[in-house]
Amino acid sequence: MCPQWAHRQGVARWVGPAENVGVAPASAPLNLNGIIVNIASITEPAVPAYPFNQLHQVDALQLATSFPNASLDMLLTDPPYSSGGLHVGQRAQTTSQKYISGNAQYQDFTCDNMDQRSWSFWCHAWLSQVNRALKPGGVVVCFIDWRQLPTLTDVVQAAGFILRGIAVWDKTAGRFRPRRNGFGQQAEFIVWASKGKLPEREVYLPGVFQAKLGIPKQHLTEKPIDMARQIVRLVPPGGVVADLFAGCGTFLVAAKEAGLQWVGSELDDHYHQVASDRLARTAPAPLQDLAA
Ligand SMILES: C[S@@+](CC[C@H](N)C(=O)[O-])C[C@H]1O[C@@H](n2cnc3c(N)ncnc32)[C@H](O)[C@@H]1O
C-alpha cells in the first residue's frame, strides 16, 4: 500500500501500512537566505530502529524515522520519480507504460504517481529524517531524471543539506530513448549534498559516468552496479550506507561488497525478494582487495 497523509483535527498523520501509523515527521529548520526558520525540529527517531545489514520490507519513511541520530554515512538512493508525464493522466500510468519503450517486460513498481506538490513534500519528509540520521559530513546521493531535477535540488536544500553538485549518468548508445527532432534522453542525474562540511578524505569521482546496463535488467529502472561501486568509495571504512528505495538492491550490494554496513527498504514483494536474494549471494570483498 502506498503511504499517504491524512489530516484530522489539524494534525497531519502518516497513514501507511497499519503498523506504520504515527504522527507526521516534522520539518528540519529551513535556511531562507541565511535566516534559519525552525518549523519544528526533529531531534529523536520516531520509532525503534530497524537493524542494519538487512533489507526491510517497510515504507521508506518508516525506515527513515527509525534511524538513530548520527548513525549513517551515506544515503545512496533512487526514489520513484513520479515523473513520465506533465499531466495527471500521463503520470497515473503504470511504470512500464511510462518508462519502457519497446517490448521488454518488467514487473511494475509501486508509489510512482504522486502529483508534483505531494512528491516535493514527501521527499522533504524522508530527506529531513535522513538529515537527522546522518553523521556530520555525511552525504546524500540521489538519482533523478530531468523532469524532477529542479524540484529535488530545492527539496534537498529545504531539508537542511548543502547542495554540492550534480553528476551525470550517461546511459550510452543504444540504451536511451531517441527523440525525433530533438535531444535524446541519454542521461539521468545524480544530485549530491552534504550535512555540513565534507570530511577531509582523498577520494575523487568523475562528474560523468558512462555506464551501459545489461539486458535483461533485474528492475525496470535499475542503475548500473559499476557506478554504485564507485560512489560508495566516498564512505569511510566501516561506514553505513542506506537506500530507502532499494529496487533490486544495486546500491546495497555495492555497499556490502565494499565491506560497509548497509540498510534499506523496498515495499514491493517481487523486488524485495529479488534484492534479498541478490544480497544473500553477495560476499564482502576480502580486506586486502579493499585496501588496493
Ligand atoms: C527507482 S526504483 C529503484 C531502483 C534501484 N535503484 C535499482 O537499481 O534496482 C524505486 C523502488 O522504490 C520502491 N518504492 C516505492 N515507494 C516506496 C516506499 N514508499 N517505500 C519503500 N520502497 C518504495 C519501488 O517498489 C521501486 O522498486
Task: Describe the structure in brief.
This protein is α/β, with parallel strands linked by helices and 292 residues long.
Looking at CATH, the homologous superfamily is Vaccinia Virus protein VP39
Mean pLDDT: 85
Q: What is the C-alpha radius of gyration, as a whole number of Å? A: 18 Å
Strand content: 15-25%
How many structural domains does the protein architecture include? 1
Order of helices and strands: EEEEEEHEHHHEHEEEHEHEHH
Find the count of extended strands (DSSP E, 2+ residues).
13
CATH architecture: 3-Layer(aba) Sandwich
Describe this structure in words.
By secondary structure, the protein is α/β, with parallel strands linked by helices. The chain has one domain: Vaccinia Virus protein VP39 (Rossmann fold). It has nine helices and 13 strands. The strands form three sheets. It has an eight-stranded mixed β-sheet, sandwiched between helices. Strand 12 (240-243), helix 7 and strand 13 form a beta-alpha-beta unit. Helix 1 packs parallel to helix 4 (116-133) and helix 6 (225-231) crosses helix 7. The radius of gyration is 18 Å and the shape is globular. The relative contact order is 0.16. Residues 5-26 have low confidence and may be disordered. S-adenosylmethionine (SAM) binds next to loops.
